[in-house]
Amino acid sequence: MYLQLAAVKQELEEAGQAMLESEKKLKFKEETATAAMAAREAAERSLSLADTRASRLRDRIEELSHQVEEFETREDLTGRNRPRYVWWPWQWLGLDFVGHHRPETQQEDSNEMELSEPFL
């Protein structure tokens, strides 16, 4: 009878140990699941923020593109009747206005002299 009692006691201890290990595993799985759910929620929030930011940036790009198109259209309309480039020393070339030549005069020679004199 003593041997049967010892065997049952041993079996009970092993079952208790197995139950403790199962409880530890279950607790670990619960903690892992909780952490995974928190990570998933954080990832969803991050993705939502990224989508919002991308949408705002897309809207800003569309707005800037529209502004560029308007500017280019305005430039096309106003730029047709005026010279495209203006070079400030146009007088030195003997021009009164863009496209109009004037005859060479003494003033052109004096401009050349002014260029050759040192600045003080």
Indicate the percent of residues in helices: over 70%
Oligomer class: single chain
- Proportion of beta-strand residues: under 5%
Widest beta sheet: strand line-up:
1-2
Mean pLDDT: 80
* Number of spatially distinct domains: 2
Rg estimate, integer Å:
44 Å
* Count of runs of 4 or more consecutive helical residues: 2
Stretches where pLDDT falls below 50 for ≥5 residues? none
**What gap, in angstroms, lies between the N and C termini?**
126 Å
Q: Given the helix and strand composition, which structural class is it?
A: mainly alpha
Dominant shape: rod-shaped
Largest sheet, described in full?
2 strands, antiparallel
What can you tell me about this protein's structure?
There is one protein chain. With 120 residues, the protein is mainly α. It folds into two domains: 2-82; 86-120, no CATH class. The protein is 74% helix and 4% strand. The protein has two helices and two strands. The chain has a two-stranded antiparallel ribbon with strand order 1-2. The radius of gyration is 44 Å and the shape is rod-shaped. The termini are far apart. The mean pLDDT is 80. This is PARAMYOSIN. It comes from Salix koriyanagi. Residues 5-74 form a coiled coil. InterPro entries: At3g49055-like. Keywords: Coiled coil.
